[in-house]
Design brief:
A five-stranded mixed β-sheet has the order 3-4-5-6-7, sandwiched between helices. A two-stranded antiparallel sheet has the order 1-2. The radius of gyration is 32 Å and the shape is elongated. It has 25 helices and seven strands. By secondary structure, it is mainly α. Helices cover 63% and strands 5% of the residues. The relative contact order is 0.15. The termini are far apart.
Amino acid sequence: MALTNRIGFDNLRGDIFGGMTTAIVSLPLALTFGVAAVNNPVAGLYGAVCVGFFAALFGGTPTLISEPTGPMTVVMTTIVASLTAADPENGLAMAFTVVMLAGIFQIIFGVFKLGKYITLMPYSVISGFMSGIGVILIILQIAPFLGQTAPKGGVLGTLQSLPELLSNINPNELFLGALALGIIFFMPSRWKRFCPPQLLALVVGTVVAFLFFADDQIRVIGQIPVGLPALKLPTFTAVKVTKILAEAFMLAILGCIDTLLTAVIADSLTRTEHDSNKELIGQGIGNLMSGLLGGLPGAGATMGTVVNIQTGAKTALAGITRALVLLTIVLGAAPLMQNIPMSVLAGIAIKVGIDILDWSFLKRAHVVSRRATLIMYGVLLLTVFWDLIVAVFVGVFIANILTIERLSELQSKDVRTITDADDAIELTAEERELLNRGQGQVLLFYLSGPMIFGVAKAIAREHAAMSNVGAIILDLTDVPMLGVTACLAIENVVLDALDKGRVIYIVGAAGSTRNRLQKFGVLDRLPLDHLVSERRLALSKALVELNISAQPAAVTAGQ
């Protein structure tokens, strides 16, 4: 695996044009997210610069554009709010420490090649979580959209303050916010090829405010410091270290999911294949540097990536160009952005929140699966009103339990005990004859498929229902994987048979299944010749031990 991403110069025009175009697309969103998360537009810009540059340089998806995204911004907003409430003096510094640690976690995920496991999460949980983040982003922008300062208490504080917010609307700021939102919603598609709607909304909203509301008290971004930022050294207290680590882990996981899903979209558009582990390392380096420089955390951004590809970009040079263009804007054009109205940024953010909502799944979830619908809405509500981390873990836990239950039900159908040759399982003619000759004294205990822990209950049920037979044939020929709990259930079957003096044979245990039985000592309890490879041989041996002829009786003349 190469240390840096592939940077080619054979597509120089397409990469540079792609980088410049995505920089224009990123500018209004970076400003919006910076104000939304930490009330500092420069934080959003430096997040776009740092994550965009280092993820492009060290990542594993050449055309991916990385920057602060809606989901990452919402999580960062909650982190800042909780840490500053607990420690007003050091809370913001600890929040940037969380960003650094999230980057380190992502690097670790990449180094240990965990990329392919990151997105192994039920879609109902991802949908509920993303939609919940969209709802949070919309709610948090209500106050600035109406021309007022955001109340304390986050989502709940805003909802409780709604009557007061609605009774004190600033009509001028509401107009500007609605104007920005209207431009983004209703801008003709053919115009979008020449100018991103967010940028047009930003410019038009600022110009209208300057021309018509210059004498009014319109809240604007204000003075933006020019120059390179100071380093933000890691800051945390022993009391908060557990909370910081948990939030960093959550932020890292969200960034990984956001990025890898976007990388899959990039693959489908470019007909290439990304390196997920290398991408996580690049994202981690980007977030680590962003936290050090006081920038927001970022991830792969779908809109920027699609625009980048559509404008002709093919290599990481586009992402690097974009970061350098944004850096130039930060260092040289910051004073030009200080008169941007806050309500205009709120309007842009509300549209981002609306776009984050998983409308496609929300419309169809109740038709597709009632369980998936309940999980999705449960995660959504927990995300909005309780806690992001709790929402994900509860959602994943419930979804996995329900999945295991369903798989166990299906797998339990392949746990059968028969004493005569019926149609429950497929037997050869010779096996049918041998089993019938057992006259109910030989029981065939057949299992198939992966024996996960949920199947142990079915094994125990069949075991308890066993009649007073003389021999048990435990057929594991079609079992590719044997879980610990299922292995213990099988051990109970063997021990019970031996205690009752029954003959028992194990058939077809091979590979990992045999190794698991060996490690549990199950095979040591049986004579060597009681572990056989064929069901026919086991049936023959069992009949011999029960003193039943394994050969069909001869037909006498005259019969």
